[in-house]
Protein 1
Amino acid sequence: MDALAAESFLNAQHRIYGLTMRPLSLGHAFALEAIGNSFYHGELGTFHDLRVAAWICSKPPFTPLKFDGWRDLLWRWRTARHDFSQQVARWKAYVDDYCTPPQMWNKQPKAGEERAEPSRIPHQITSVVRLMRLGMTERHAWATPVGMASWYEAAAYESETGSRLDIVTDSERVAILRAKQKKTENG
């Protein structure tokens, strides 16, 4: 079995700033991208950005963002005491756990072959539509973890078209890592 597939479906429990994270779903990813949260893209943001990302991912997808109750004020006060770098590491582990799509070989277009224009529709919406075509309800599709959704889409593509995707295997990933390591050692 592909290690990335196993990683997408077999996940650990994650806590960030004392909040129990829900599986990082398409709905969470959409919300984080919509507000421009840098942590979803692996960039280092501010303490506030990470707190907002953790809060969003601890709630069901599309829960309105509001910090106005006394519990929220107490939570915000307590989070100021946490080690920021430790919480960033926890966030990275959380994202890595839920965002493991199939790794594809990058094929360059042949001479004279044009690449398709990228869609202007956010990719999470496209994924939700594909999952709904597989029989999921809209609510279930938005709650599907990001990596899991990618594997479902890949499997659906292969079963519908009869074509095989050029997915990098575990042994190929190991060979690539060894080649990179050898290259760094030599030069």
Protein 2
Amino acid sequence: MPESDRESELTETVLRAKYADFCSAQLTEVFLSLSDEKIYEMVEEEAKIQKLDPGNLGFRKRVQLATNRLRDSVPLPDFKTWRRNYEAAPERYEKYLLGLWRQLSTEETGEAG
């Protein structure tokens, strides 16, 4: 693979990892601002939709269900929009990144980070 293609692929991988990190940070911020009652309500609603018994769910599954509900309600930009805005002013977005993107990008490329 030519060096410019490899660099372009790496850039795309890093940007997609940063986008996933940004979205995760946004969802986490909203999640942490919710009351216990609201989280419980979200889990119950999502469990009904997925035909699951809420009484038999572990912690991780409950968090996953609440996150699914949040993903549908929190306005997040699509990747193309985010990328355009990020490339225009990365400093506006860097403060929201949790650092997960480093792990995500190295997992995709298979390189040690």
